[in-house]
Every structure is written in C-alpha cells, then in structure tokens.
Design a protein that fits this description.
Layout: H1 18-25, E1 38-43, H2 69-85, E2 89-92, E3 110-113, E4 116-119, H3 130-141, E5 145-148, E6 160-164, E7 167-172, H4 178-190, E8 195-200, E9 212-216, E10 219-222, H5 229-237, E11 241-244, H6 248-253, E12 260-263, E13 266-270, H7 274-282, E14 286-290, H8 302-305, E15 307-311
Parallel strand pairs: 1-2, 4-5, 7-8, 10-11, 13-14
Antiparallel strand pairs: 1-15, 3-4, 6-7, 9-10, 12-13
C-alpha cells in the first residue's frame, strides 16, 4: 500500500466576505432602506394572544381597548393582500406565547440589515420572550441572525430606521437604551454603515415610526415639533424634502406616519387621515390606504406590524 504523506493542515479558511456568500448559502435577504422595492416581510397574524386583553386589563398593556378578534384578523389579512398584490412574500411567526398580545407588532422584534436580522430585546418586560419565536421563524426560512441584543441592552426594532446604505437613525428612549443602540451600531458599522444619526425619542413616545418615516428616495415625512433639529438638519444636508405633518388628531389617533413604502414613491398607510394623505400626495408619493381602526386599539399600525426581510437596494432593479 502506498504511503500517503500528509504535509500539515490542508483546511484553509475562505476569505470571501459574508455578504458575497449570503445569497447562495442562506437566501436572498437584504435591507438597507425603508423604501427599496419590498420583496419579503415577516409578520404575526393576530392570534389567540390578543384575547388576553380584556376590559379589565387593557390599561395594563397601554392599549386603547380590547380588539375584536375577527376584525383584527380581517384587517391584517387585507394588509397582507395588498403586500402580495405588489409581489411581496409574506412569512409568518406561527407560534407565540398566549400572554403576549403585542406580538403582532413584529417590527419591534427585528431590525433587518444587508447581512441578516438583528433580533431585538424589548424595552418592556410584558413583551420579552416574543423574540424566541421570531428567532425560530427566521431560522426556519433561512434568515441569518447576526446578533441578538443581550447583556444590559434593550432595543426595539422600531427604534431604528434606514436612510440609505451609509446612514441609519438610531433612537434611544423608553424602548431602547444606550447599550442596546451600541450593539446595533457595532453590527451596522461592521457592514459598512458610516453615519449614525442619534435621535432622542421624547417622553411619551415609544418609537421613531410615530414621529418620522421615509416615503421616497429623498422624501421624509415627520412631526416637526418633536423631531430634533439635528436630525432634520442631517436629512436636509442629504437633500431630503421634508413633509411636515402637524394634524395632531391624525398623528396621535390615526397613526398617519406609521406607513410602509412598497417601493420608492408608493406607500400603504392607515386610512382616515385625509390631511396627511393630501400632503404626502402633494410631495409626489402615491398612497394606498388600508383600514386599521381595530389594530390601532393596540397603539400600533402598518409599520409596527411589518418587519422587513428583503428590499431591493436603492438604485437596483426595483427603483
């Protein structure tokens, strides 16, 4: 028998960046904006857990009122029908704790990046544990999890917002602390993000998407009285057109800024906000409306329910 001479270790590491391998090894998952053509989302259809809210405890969860189960499911289905009619694949978190009624607000569980998902750790204890089932669903469909917020950090996904491939807004407040933001920032900078816009979310607000959102490549919609000057100044420096929404009724009760862009210049927003709709349309953005009055009883709407998994890069085929 011929002797085989082994000359040292023959397994050499690949030096290919993760981003170049991801599509072949994991799947087509990517997000670097709020507006690139939407391809995939992950959601949680209102399940048995929303029945946990009753007339006796809805105040403990900071809801306006208990939801009608069938109506909430109907409104959720109508939104996903809009997504599918625009070519969006809708994935679901199938399992959830029955004492976590806010689980339908999936944006808070995931902040998506160009290289995979950051699984969040909610700021309030009444929501912690939802992320376990989110991670399970992400793993099932092959989305890489690049980090789970850990240690002393907490961060809701709706405390982060993409502006462009180089720029992200990260907010601190009741739902994200400095340690949680630092963990997110570390991962983003590792992926090439160069500019972090820090946003101190005011007392009385949970997330960014009740105060600011992106509707087109250079169009931001915001509540001017509670968005810091430094944030707006940086958007202006990037040549953004600012659409100022000042109708307090629509902002507070209609969640008019809580919309999702289907592609640059086309959004789906909660119905019943005519003043806001008119201003956004005047800025050249096409608006599709969806009834959300039942979902709004939980102080959330379209953007809250939708965690992005895949958007075309800006300037790509979906622009």
């Amino acid at each position: 028998m011929r002797e085989v001479k082994v000359q040292g270790e023959r397994w050499f590491p690949s030096t290919t960046p993760f981003s170049e391998e991801m599509k072949d090894l994991w799947g087509d998952w990517y997000c670097d904006s709020e507006i690139g053509k939407l391809r995939d989302v992950i959601m949680r259809k209102p399940g048995e857990e929303i029945k946990f809210i009753t007339e006796n405890n809805f105040g403990d969860f900071r809801w306006k009122a208990p939801m009608n189960f069938k109506k909430a499911q109907q409104q959720h289905n109508e939104l996903t029908d809009i997504y599918r009619s625009h070519g969006v694949n809708v994935h679901y978190v199938e399992q959830q704790r029955e004492d976590r009624p806010n689980a339908l607000f999936m944006r808070d569980q995931v902040f998506m990046t160009p290289e995979g998902a950051i699984v969040c750790r909610n700021g309030i204890s009444a929501r912690r544990g939802e992320e376990r089932y989110t991670a399970e669903a992400l793993a099932k469909i092959g989305v890489p999890i690049v980090r789970t917020i850990n240690g002393d950090g907490w961060f809701d996904g709706a405390c982060g917002m993409w502006i462009d491939r180089n720029t992200v807004i990260l907010g601190t407040g009741a739902r994200a602390n400095h340690e949680g933001v630092a963990q997110v920032e570390y991962e983003l900078r590792n992926m090439g993000v160069t500019d972090i816009i820090h946003f101190q979310i005011p007392y009385g607000h949970a997330h960014l998407d009740g105060l600011i959102n992106i509707a087109d490549k250079k169009t931001a919609v915001l509540f001017p009285w509670q968005v810091p000057y430094d944030v707006v100044k940086q958007l202006l420096d990037l040549d953004f057109n600012i659409v100022e929404i000042t109708n307090l009724e629509e902002l507070k009760w209609g969640s008019c800024i809580n919309f999702v862009a289907l592609e640059p210049g086309k959004i789906v927003m909660p119905s019943g906000n005519p003043d806001t709709k008119g201003k956004i349309e005047d800025a050249g953005v096409k608006v599709i409306e969806a009834d959300m009055d039942e979902i709004l009883k939980g102080w959330g709407a379209i953007h809250c329910m939708t965690a992005f998994l895949n958007r075309d890069p800006i300037g790509g085929t979906g622009s």
